[in-house]
Amino acid sequence: MTLGKRNKLNLSQDQLANKCNLSRNTIYNYENNKRTPAISILITIAKNLNIPSSDLLDDGNNINSYSNKLELVAIDNNIKSILYVEKEILINYELEMNEIYKKHFLDLFNWKTLEMTHHNYLKFILSLCPLPETEHMTEDDFNELSVLFYRLLTLKFHERNSINETEKNTPSNSKIYEKSNFLNIN
Questions:
Q1: 105 lies in some domain
Q2: 91 in any annotated domain
Q3: What is the pLDDT of residues 56-82, one digit of tens each?
Q4: Which residues form the domain of 158?
Q5: What residues contact residue 19 under an 8 Å CB cut-off, 6+ apart?
Q6: Dihedral class, residue 57 (left if φ above 0, else alpha if ψ from -120 to 50, else beta)
Q7: How confident is the model at residue 18 (pLDDT cuts 50, 70, 90)?
Q8: Which tens digits make up the pLDDT trace of 127-161?
Q9: How many distinct structural domains can be found in the chain?
Q10: Is residue 15 part of a domain?
């Protein structure tokens, strides 16, 4: 930092230090290039001297160093603001996609599975949530399982149609007991 700027304003090191909330020794070290002020301190000193901060820099390599630092601070602030905007855009996009997913998932699922045979439907369901027990199944195993699956669905459909409302709600219903017992075993 150059000494001439302070002297032109007839300020002592003590007076400048008081204006900038720094010690006189700090101003001395800056002016004699024993220490390098941070950019924020450089800006504070320049404001108190009513001059641009670039005027405080020596004509040597320090000018490039400070101007590079000032440019880096500006670029860094610009990048931070861009990243903040990008993060907001990403969050909004994820929220929109979640809404679309919630709104259309079942429609897409029904569309995908509507024309499937019970065999393909079972394979599709198992592909969505694979079980360790199905890893080594052959095509014949899937065929047998799909037949059983279809029979079970048909049986359940007829069972629901044949049970009247009073049997469904009766606590002593053996089907409810069997179902809860089955679920507790697994």
A1: no
A2: no
A3: 765 444 445 555 555 666 666 777 778
A4: 116-185
A5: 11, 48
A6: beta
A7: very high
A8: 777 778 777 888 888 888 888 888 888 888 888 77
A9: 2
A10: yes
